[in-house]
Amino acid sequence: MLTPEHLHALRNLPLAARQAAEGLLHGAHASRRKGAGMEFSQYRPYQPGDDLRRLDWRLAARSDRYYLRESEIDTSLTVHLVLDATASMNHQDDNGLSKLDYARLLCAALAYVATQQGDAVALTVLHPAGLQHLPPRADPRQLPRLYHMLETLRAEGTFPDRSTLAPLTARRQPGLIICLSDLYEEQDEIMRLLTRLRAASGDVLLLHLLARNELEFSFRGAVTFQDLETGRTLQLDADQQRSAWQTHLHEWLRSTATATRRQGFDYYQLSTAEPLDRALREFLRQRTTRMA
Question: What is the pTM of this model?
């Protein structure tokens, strides 16, 4: 798998999404199952209890054997991508890649994989000024629309309030919701949203994005940190505070994972320095479980 830096350096989101996903999709089974659908697939011998309306009487007359016509019917899923595009997603790792850059690549790759599986894909971008929403579709023109929306978005402001989010939670559409966020919040507003989405739509896969320099606290010496959403600043000696930072961070990550799974979400922590394949494999695993 290519690194996120290499994919981002392509400056071509459709190409990056395809390159990230193609190796993963190699050998993957198509999203179809046998049944009484519209597209003919094969014959199989008649068995007692089978629907006689599916019997091929012309073949029986020619061969004196009884066969049923089996068809393939599509098994598709509605995949709803929900992307946190608040200002904290502008945080950059040491490689120059921001959380938003990584989320943009991952959303594009997830949409590409879902489309290849025959799924309908939707995208909602969370902004404080309002929601950007692309309704679900399963046609070839959906990916270019989605790529354009991802390429032009900017991260800004704080997490939208409940009234702004109301149109999103009012939609009752069964499917798989995949939320990409750094979970930077003031008072559990992201968790409350996901709880309402799960009640309205079904399963929720939460992809928690963190930069490697956050996880490792790789800063050195005297550092001034600025809260990207409030503008507040904090000055400290990174070398002296590293141990305390990491202890606090690991406690928060542990409690976050526990709380989200208790709510019934599937939670995965991702570093913006790692390839996209782990998140893509988890999507395919969840999809296979739902389609079984």
Answer: 0.82
Q: How far is CA 132 from the centre of its chain?
A: 16
Looking at the chain, which residues constitute the CATH 3.40.50.410 domain(s)? 4-28+76-291
Count of other CB atoms within 10 angstroms of residue 93: 22
Maximum pairwise Cα distance, the chain: 88
Can you give the pLDDT of all 292 residues of the chain as single tens digits? 589 999 999 999 999 999 999 877 764 544 444 444 444 446 667 766 666 767 777 777 777 777 766 554 444 799 999 999 999 999 999 989 999 999 999 999 999 999 998 899 999 999 888 899 999 998 878 999 999 999 999 999 999 998 999 988 887 778 999 999 999 998 889 999 999 999 888 899 999 999 999 999 999 999 999 999 999 999 999 999 999 999 999 999 999 999 999 999 999 999 999 999 989 999 988 888 776 6
CATH 1.20.1250.20 for domain 4-28+76-291, yes or no, is no
Residue 119: what are its φ and ψ, rounded to 5°? Answer: -90, 155
φ, ψ for residue 170, nearest 5 deg: -80, -20
Helix (H) or strand (E) holding 279, with range, is helix 277-291
The total of other beta-carbon atoms located within 10 Å of residue 17's CB is: 28
Q: What are phi and psi of 180, to 5 degrees?
A: -115, 120
What is the C-alpha separation between 248 and 252, in angstroms, rounded?
A: 6
CA distances to 142, 186, 188, 192, 248 from 254, rounded to whole Å, are 37, 18, 16, 19, 10
Q: Which residues of 235-261 are buried (b: 16+ CB within 10 A; e: fewer)?
A: eeeeeeeeeebeeeeeeebeebbeebe
Q: How far apart are CA 126 and CA 236, in angstroms?
A: 32
